[in-house]
Every structure is written in structure tokens, then in C-alpha cells.
Design brief:
With 339 residues, this protein is an alpha/beta fold. It has 15 helices and six strands. It has helices at 2-49, 55-68, 77-92, 94-100, 105-114, 118-131, 135-143, 146-151, 159-162, 167-173, 192-209, 257-272, 292-299, 319-322, 328-338, and strands at residues 179-182, 214-225, 228-238, 243-249, 282-287, 306-314. It has a six-stranded mixed β-sheet with strand order 1-6-5-4-3-2. α1 (2-49) packs across α3 (77-92) and α5 packs parallel to α7 (135-143). The protein starts with a helix and ends with a helix. Mean pLDDT is 80; it is low at 315-339.
């Protein structure tokens, strides 16, 4: 009994120590990052104040700093020009400068290079910090204009009416319009079942990229109502929202009846799966395309939290190319022969 208590206490102690270590590491990063950005801001200011000397000043400064600090990186001509840009942006907007301390230097410069509007810059900085986007994740988010896709969902859901804050606000943050799915093995004239099968992993990755908290429960998840089986395309549980996320995938334009079906699924999930401490389940309908007014009118008097988004498929392979590719059986046969 004493041993069991000790084991339980020890696990709790370890969890607390790990939490303290992780928080300390984060604080160390934030402090070091802020100091580095302050240094780069200062150097950028010096470069701007001596702009009358042109590129010669930057070239000579780069050489001098590399000689003086051979073990330090970041004094290339290119990076000194980035410091100049950082100073020019942040000196004109202190909110951008404050937000920039949340993410690494390379991410800041990527945002400053690709995004010109300060409001958008702050949004990408905050989302990068919140979701832990890597450099290339951030590049994709900018490339596919995530800011505009996030802003466009305002009238494509009824979360403000059906969910209390902060859950309603958090629910809106998991939506984008359209979602961009990069499916390299999908035929151009795909059917719904083929689309669903090909997109399961991609949707999981896409939703995970929207923020920490998504946990995949299953696809074609079976629920039984009145002795009849129904199958949900994709089912997630969101740890921060404390609720199930029901996703229906449609290879057609949005139809109002899709909301009725989703409403049914949400009622069933709330009745059969939702725990006492869980929040109401949220539905997300992904369609090939939609009319925004049709979505708005359909959701107007619906009491369950539902959102509707479209999706786009990138880099699918044409049929004539796919037909020439070997099948999995042919590949296995080829391996057997050569072994």
C-alpha cells in the first residue's frame, strides 16, 4: 500500500517537475529571443541612419562583425539587410515589434517578406506562436492565404449563437474557408468514397496544424440509433474545447439537407458519447463548393453548433498518368521476382 502511494506520488512529482522544466525552457527562449531581436533592431537602426553610404556600409559592417565575432552567426550581408527591414517595420508599428518576440527570427523575416499588412503580420505571428508552426508550415499557411480563409468563415457557422465564449471563439479558430488539401495520388474524376479514403490522413494533418488539441477518434465511425447503424465520416475529440468534432465530407456543392443530417449526428453523439463534463459536440461540413447565402440561411435557426467550409484539392494526378502507374500488387510481384 505504501509502495503504491509512493509510486503515485512520484509520478505526480515527476509531472510537476517536467511542467516546470518545460515552462522554464519556454521562458528562457522568450527572453533570449527578445534580447536577440532587440540587438537586431539596434543594428537595423544603425544601418538605416547610415543609409547615405549605400551598400558599402552594409558590406563593410558584415566583414567587420564576422572578423570580430567569428563564432557568432547572423552577420551576413543578407541578414544585415533583414535587420534593416525589421527596424523599418517595427519602428513604424510597436505592436508588430512586441508580437515578434513570440517567434524565432527566421519566422519573423519570412512574415515580413511575404506579408505587407501589419494586421496580417500580427495574426501570422500569433498563430505561429500558438500552433507551433515550423518554417515551412508557416510558408504554406502564407502561400494558401490562411488569414483570408480564417476571416471568411464568420457567416459560415453559428458558433456565436450556439456556443458560449471562449468555446465559441475557439471553435471559429479551427475553421478555414477553403481548406487546402494536397492529394498527389487522387484522380481528377474522383468519387466520394475514393476522396474520403485519400483525404483521411490529410485532414488529420490539416486539423492538427490548426492547433494543439485535436485527437483522432476514427473514420466511418459507427453509431447505432434505434437498432440502425449510421457512419460518421470523421470523428475527432478536441482536448481544449472539451468536445467531439463531427466532420462530414461531401464531393458536391453544399445542400441544405446536409445540415439536417449533421444535426442528427450531433444529437446522437451528444447522447451516446458525450460525457458529463464535455461541451456540446461541434459539426463541420466540408463541401466541394457552396453558396454563402444558402449556408447562412440554412444555419440561421439551427441550435446545434455547425460550420460549413469548402475545400480545394491541389496537385491531383490526371487519369492518364495514374493509369500508367504500377499497382501495389504489381510492385509486390516485382519485389518477389527480384528477391
Amino acid at each position: 500500500m505504501v509502495k503504491e502511494t509512493l509510486d503515485k506520488d512520484f509520478k505526480q512529482i515527476i509531472c510537476e517537475i517536467k511542467s516546470k522544466i518545460d515552462n522554464t525552457k519556454l521562458e528562457i527562449f522568450k527572453s533570449a529571443n527578445m534580447n536577440l531581436l532587440n540587438l537586431y533592431f539596434y543594428i537595423g537602426q544603425i544601418i538605416v541612419e547610415n543609409s547615405k553610404y549605400g551598400n558599402n556600409f552594409i558590406n563593410n559592417l558584415s566583414i567587420e562583425l564576422k572578423i570580430s565575432y567569428p563564432n557568432m552567426k547572423g552577420f551576413s550581408v543578407r541578414n544585415l539587410k533583414n535587420m534593416r527591414k525589421y527596424y523599418l517595420v517595427c519602428s513604424n508599428n510597436k505592436k508588430v515589434q512586441k508580437a515578434s518576440a513570440l517567434i524565432p527570427w527566421s519566422h519573423n523575416i519570412l512574415i515580413f517578406d511575404k506579408v505587407t499588412d501589419d494586421e496580417k503580420r500580427i495574426w501570422y505571428i500569433n498563430q505561429t506562436a500558438k500552433n507551433g508552426w515550423g518554417y515551412y508550415d508557416l510558408l504554406d499557411e502564407i502561400k494558401y492565404n490562411s488569414y483570408s480563409r480564417y476571416k471568411s468563415v464568420e457567416k459560415l457557422n453559428n458558433f456565436n449563437k450556439t456556443l458560449p465564449n471562449p468555446q465559441g471563439k475557439m471553435a471559429k479558430e479551427i475553421m478555414k474557408d477553403p481548406y487546402i488539401f494536397d492529394i498527389t495520388t487522387l484522380r481528377k474524376d474522383y468519387i466520394e468514397k475514393e476522396l474520403e479514403t485519400a483525404m483521411v490522413d490529410k485532414i488529420k494533418m490539416t486539423l492538427l496544424a490548426l492547433g494543439n488539441g485535436f485527437s483522432f477518434v476514427g473514420n466511418q465511425y459507427r453509431i447505432t440509433v434505434d437498432n440502425e447503424d449510421y457512419f460518421i465520416d470523421l470523428l475527432f475529440y478536441h482536448i481544449k474545447l472539451h468536445c467531439y468534432i463531427v466532420i462530414e465530407l461531401k464531393n458536391t456543392k453544399f445542400k441544405p439537407e446536409y445540415v439536417g443530417k449533421m444535426n442528427f449526428y450531433l444529437s446522437a453523439v451528444d447522447d451516446l458519447l458525450k460525457g458529463k463534463t464535455d461541451n456540446p459536440s461541434i459539426g463541420l461540413i466540408l463541401c466541394k463548393n457552396k453558396n454563402k447565402f444558402s449556408v447562412e440561411y440554412t444555419l440561421k435557426d439551427i441550435n446545434k453548433p455547425i460550420g460549413v467550409s469548402s475545400y480545394e484539392l491541389k496537385k491531383y494526378l490526371p487519369n492518364n498518368i495514374l493509369k500508367e502507374l504500377p499497382t501495389e500488387e504489381e510492385l509486390n510481384l516485382h519485389i518477389d521476382i527480384n528477391e
